[in-house]
Amino acid sequence: MNDRKTIDLEQGWDFMQKGITKLKNILEGLPEPQFSSEDYMMLYTTIYNMCTQKPPHDYSQQLYDKYRESFEEYITSAVLPSLREKHDEFMLRELVKRWSNHKVMVRWLSRFFHYLDRYFIARRSLPGLNEVGLTCFRDLVYQELNGKVRDAVISLIDQEREGEQIDRALLKNVLDIFVEIGMGQMDHYENDFEEVMLKDTAAYYSRKASNWILEDSCPDYMLKAEECLKREKDRVSHYLHFSSEPKLLEKVQHELLSVYATQLLEKEHSGCHALLRDDKVEDLSRMYRLFWKIPRGLDPVSNIFKQHVTTEGTALVKQAEDAASNKKADKKDVVGLQEQVFVRKVIELHDKYMAYVNDCFTNHTLFHKALKEAFEIFCNKGVSGSSSAELLATFCDNILKKGGSEKLSDEAIEETLEKVVKLLAYISDKDLFAEFYRKKLARRLLFDKSANDEHERSILTKLKQQCGGQFTSKMEGMVTDLTLAKENQSNFEEYLSNNPNINPGIDLTVTVLTTGFWPSYKSFDLNLPAEMVKCVEVFREFYQTKTKHRKLTWIYSLGTCNINGKFDQKTMELIVTTYQASALLLFNTSDTLSYQEIMTQLNLSDDDVVRLLHSLSCAKYKILTKEPNTKTITPTDHFEFNSKFTDKMRRIKIPLPPVDEKKKVIEDVDKDRRYAIDASIVRIMKSRKVLGYQQLVMECVEQLGRMFKPDVKAIKKRIEDLITRDYLERDKDNPNIF
């Protein structure tokens, strides 16, 4: 090694130049044998030797420069001229070929000059051979041509958008150059190509959209928009860089959807309203998919949905109103049938649009909210003087009682009850519903009208889940009471059979209830007929044996009684209320009685006596005859037993029309609400100590909102009342602070 000859620069470079020329010829496709291992070794060794000679013969720096010059010389002499003479697609093909050749050349030359990379460059921290090679191409070729290349690519993309076939592989290769030239950075791709391409895309779709919006119906327009978005996504996967996808789709969505959102949704015969009206489920799903992607895009859709549902619901209310007023005009009282139909229709409406929310709008919270708000609007309207709370309670009653107007299978009943409870969520006066429901439930339980105990308990469970335990505790108590009452009755019968000397004289069934659970009933001290007094005493004694501290209050207004009437034709059994029985039994001792005498002997109020006597002398079954024979009862009438009465049946039931309890229910609820508001105000003030009027009202409304919407005036009144009762006081200086 020591006696090797020193190679001077000229001589060594001549040898290298031969190798480089051979490489260029191979790249240009001229007939030239491939490099053999020996050739490669010789070239590498020459460089090695020239770099390891003692100074001043260490030619590392000069070789490093010559390495770069050989690229520059090749590019200016061969590459650029061949690119400058071509245009459009041909230029793109040439560029792809030249770039791939250039990469091969860099690979070979950096191998020959490899020794430089290992020591010289590493020590001086100069750019590596590979980088120098690529930089030459970037500075000489790319800088000159990138604008021309970009325009050619964009024009091809536009041709493809118009439906022409293009060479996607070519575009992929060209765009790879933009990425590779950045050597790990994306700035060349983004600044030199993507930015302009996005602008062009926006302009292209803006032109398209402005025509489509005029020509197409909303569903057709959406189909086109969806197709365009799909194609653009496809375009990214075939030749654009993946980082372009979100930016590209954003542009397309903006031009096709954001810009024309309002026009599109409100198109006269095909916009969102029309799609909802005509149940175009697929188009609605598409609308959701498209508008979901744009910021705040779903807001207008959900607003239209809300308007639509509100309109449909309000139409149902109007329809029920009209039907009810026609019915009043006809005077035919088909009991609550209209209301029954109305609630059914509301349930169907809810089912239909709930399915839309779940399917078309993939359960999106915005649409759940819209549906809820819409139903809250018309569910709280009420129909011809009946609040929706009452209608719902009546609807449940019809389903749950024997012989109701609804003939449903068990599954159907369960399902319907489930839906009623869902509707209840939209009603603001839940407490009113509870009160009506309790009244109806009481009638079902006490008069043995309930069709199925399972269903009664099942709806209570559902109500409990929806409105909390406090809501149903009384109702659950009522259902339990009945079970206990039955047990109690069998104990009573056992007691009688064990003590034969105690004889009530007539068969007696007593239902013992817990006062707190049941609606309040007026209890009159009716003067019972002697026959009944005895059995009441017997039961009282029996009950005393069980408990000492419970007081029994007898509610005769809910009792029933079977009595025998001995008429001329035949003896008949009459099923009557306890009140009616007491009145009829008076005629065992007197032939005629005046209104006043009956009233005194029974010890009842005017209203009750009128109802009673009307049911016995002016209704279908005339058990009593009255003087004068008119249709109404007056305090001067006289009554006697009608022995001529007869009927084809052996047993007849003589109805006593119930008092209309609606007013009382509403009064009761109002009273309860006053207490609830009081309690809420005191609770809030206890925790806050000092609070302004507005805040207090707001918190109060929020606390009570689950049961009813408190009226601000009512709250104000309760605050005043609590101040007079010293629960709270006004601030000395500021009357609005408590």
Automatic annotation (TrEMBL):
Pfam families: Cullin, Cullin_AB, Cullin_Nedd8. The keyword Ubl conjugation applies. GO terms for molecular function: ubiquitin protein ligase binding. GO terms for biological process: jasmonic acid mediated signaling pathway; ubiquitin-dependent protein catabolic process. SMART domains: CULLIN (SM00182), Cullin_Nedd8 (SM00884). It comes from the Eukaryota. Residues 387-617 form the Cullin family profile domain. Keywords: Isopeptide bond, Ubl conjugation, Ubl conjugation pathway. Belongs to the cullin family. This is Cullin-1.
